Amino acid sequence: LTLLDPSQLSTAALRALGPGPGRTMASKGMLPLPPADQVAVLYQLHLDADAMIAGTARATAATLPEKLLSGTLGDPTLDPRVLHFFGQIAADKPTVFDAIALNTTTADSTLAMLAAKGDARGVDQVAQNEQRLLRYPEIIAAMYMNRRARMSTIDRVVELAVRNGVRV
By C-alpha distance, which of 66, 86, 81 is closest to 8? Predict the structure, then answer.
């Protein structure tokens, strides 16, 4: 994961990421920022050179309310790297999982990660997007290796791949 381009961030987010005590406050989620800015700032700060700020930002991101995250992570203008980061740390929350899985800007590799760690319901959610499965067969492989996936779902997606000549 790499830092976001500063031109993609709002002035409030840039201020929070600037020098001074604002970085520490932002890593704790204590700055009044709109939700989209909040998740972008926490993403940026989890990559910070200061290990304490980075760890605090990661912990804060993992404890953000599910309602706030699911609404924010469904935004198709959100950077795919931010979606991947929150997929790693908060995908155990069903509505967050769904928001990331259904977001059109989510990277295929992020969907493969979700397919590998999701529960049966989550794997079924990922399996609905057949175009992505055919475009990025690693998602099917991740589903196949997930012990919590339903065999009926696995059979269906493997059969889809075979019918379309996609090697998994």
Answer: 81
